[in-house]
Design brief:
By secondary structure, the chain is an alpha/beta fold. It has eight helices and six strands; from the N terminus they run βααβαβααβαβαβα. The protein has a six-stranded parallel sheet.
Amino acid sequence: MGGVNLEILDCTLRDGNHAISGGFKPEMAAHIIGGLLDAGVEVIEFGRASGIGSKAGNITDEKYLAAATPYLGRGEIGMFYRPELFGDCQYQLASESKLAFLRVGTHAGSVENSAKTLSSIRKMGIKARYSLIQAHMLSPSEIAESGRKVESYGAQSINFKIGLHSEPKDTWNNFWHAVVFSAMSS
């Protein structure tokens, strides 16, 4: 975990589907992708709320991918993927659709579940992003160790999803300073 590069990944078109009954319609998602790209947002995640391969909802991955096709290759457009829920069957669809990335998500304490997935995604020529879900359940040093592990598995980008939403600003600052210190001191 040498240098730290920060970037914005907009996942509204995927995570936001949790709040919308039936999810964003594919045509609306495509329209928003175009607007985000025009506004300079370079990394966009879209698709079903639970990720590619999910059977939830009535909109298929193929419908989302077809609607987004005109924008693939502009910026970095990809989907979320939960290996413990959906197995390995979605790699081919992601590759054939020319997705720029798959962001693999596993819960805190189970990063080992992502090892095969991250390696397979890289072998297919797709950028392998990783999301540590419920990172707030771990100590800063455990978060840093999880980051090192997924980097060794092939993750090219790592983000941490935490649930400190109601905590005061100082708690956030202290938490992230401890994570960075732990990562840099190992």
